[in-house]
Design brief:
- This protein is an alpha/beta fold.
- The protein folds into 2 domains: about 5-195, 2-enoyl-CoA Hydratase, Chain A, domain 1; about 200-250, Lyase 2-enoyl-coa Hydratase, Chain  A, domain 2 (Orthogonal Bundle).
- About 45% of the residues lie in helices and about 15% in strands.
- It has helices at about 30-45, 65-70, 75-80, 85-90, 110-115, 140-150, 150-160, 165-170, 185-195, 200-215, 220-230, 235-245; strands spanning about 5-10, 15-20, 50-55, 60, 95-100, 105, 120, 125-130, 165, 180.
- It has a 6-stranded mixed beta sheet, with helices on both faces.
- The protein binds octanoyl-coenzyme A (CO8).
- Octanoyl-coenzyme A binds next to α2 and β6.
- GO terms for molecular function: enoyl-CoA hydratase activity.
Length: about 260
């Protein structure tokens, strides 16, 4: 049987994916990323699941791409093996992704956290793009998403020096949403995940899509996208239910329709 590099646990409408290569600090080999992309797609299709959490363990989120796997690769190997293609699949996930980060989130590990929509870190978290120190550079979105998250000058410093950032610095630069004590991380993430899971799923999905468009489109195009998404939500049962429940002063019951 193939090794299980990602362990999935379900808590009602919330799924947790735990990266599982602890002996090598959750180094992201191609099989792990492939499994992760497949699991994410399956959970994205699963109507029971409304929020997906990606996490590591208390010591490490992920220490980056598997350096031993990459060492002998030629550019042609990387292309033929479609080494980075699964990352584009992760980008397409429509449900909210939360990264729960303790310990190192380095290289591809930091890039994986940046693929998520929300990042909650414990006080032990350390973020970095140390690829420069081994002769390469970020390849799974680091130069693009980190720059969008923390701005050009800080991204330059992190990527060109490979220096790590602790959780409080990451918070001050807007890389993460909040820092919590390590033993409270899972609980805090669960509370936040439940809060999102209680919202109408289609509105959540379209709001996520619209926010991500803000990073790609001009303001004019983004505003059009937002307006169309807003109007489209008036075709959903959940829009009717949400507004009716408000008027009737009761809790709404959303169906994702
Ligand atoms: N790849 C492979 N093995 C690793 C990795 C890694 N990235 N990180 C750690 N390990 C292994 C070590 O080799 C060691 O194994 P062994 O016991 O067999 O020697 C084990 O994990 C424990 O590691 P350390 O002994 O080094 O633990 P320390 O606590 O001393 O140090 C560090 C922890 C600082 C995290 C250190 O391990 C380290 O610097 N790791 C490498 C970090 C790094 O350079 N990451 C960037 C990699 S390149 C990258 O991510 C490119 C992304 C672009 C594409 C993404 C595709 C997936």
């Amino acid at each position: 049987m193939a090794e299980q590099y990602c362990i999935v646990e379900r808590f009602e409408s919330i799924a947790w994916i735990r990266l599982n290569r602890p002996q090598v600090l959750n180094a992201l080999n191609q099989k792990l990323i492939h499994q992760l992309a497949k699991i994410l797609e399956e959970l994205d299709e699963d109507e029971q699941i409304r929020v997906i959490v990606i996490t590591g363990n208390e010591q490490v989120f992920a220490a980056g791409a598997d350096i031993k796997e990459m060492t002998g690769a030629t550019p042609v190997d990387l292309l033929v093996k479609r080494y980075l293609t699964d990352w584009l699949r992760i980008r397409q996930i429509s449900k909210p992704l939360i990264a729960a980060v303790s310990g190192f989130a380095l290289g591809g590990g930091c890039e994986l956290a940046l693929c998520c929509d929300i990042i909650i870190a414990s006080e032990t978290a350390r973020f970095g793009q140390p690829e420069i120190k081994i002769g390469v550079m970020p390849g799974a979105g680091g130069t693009q998403r980190l720059t969008r998250a923390i701005g050009k000058v800080k991204a330059m410093e992190m990527i060109l020096t490979g220096k790590l950032m602790d959780a409080h610095e990451a918070l001050s630069y807007g890389l993460i949403n909040r820092v919590v004590p390590v033993h409270e991380l899972e609980n805090e993430v669960m509370v936040l995940a439940k809060e999102i899971a209680n919202q109408p799923p289609l509105a959540v999905r379209m709001a996520k899509q619209s926010i991500l468009k803000a990073l790609d489109l001009s303001l004019e195009e983004g505003l059009h996208f937002e307006q169309n998404s807003f109007c489209l939500l008036f075709a959903t049962e959940d829009q009717q239910e949400g507004m009716k429940a408000f008027i009737e002063k009761r809790e709404p019951k959303y169906k994702g329709r």
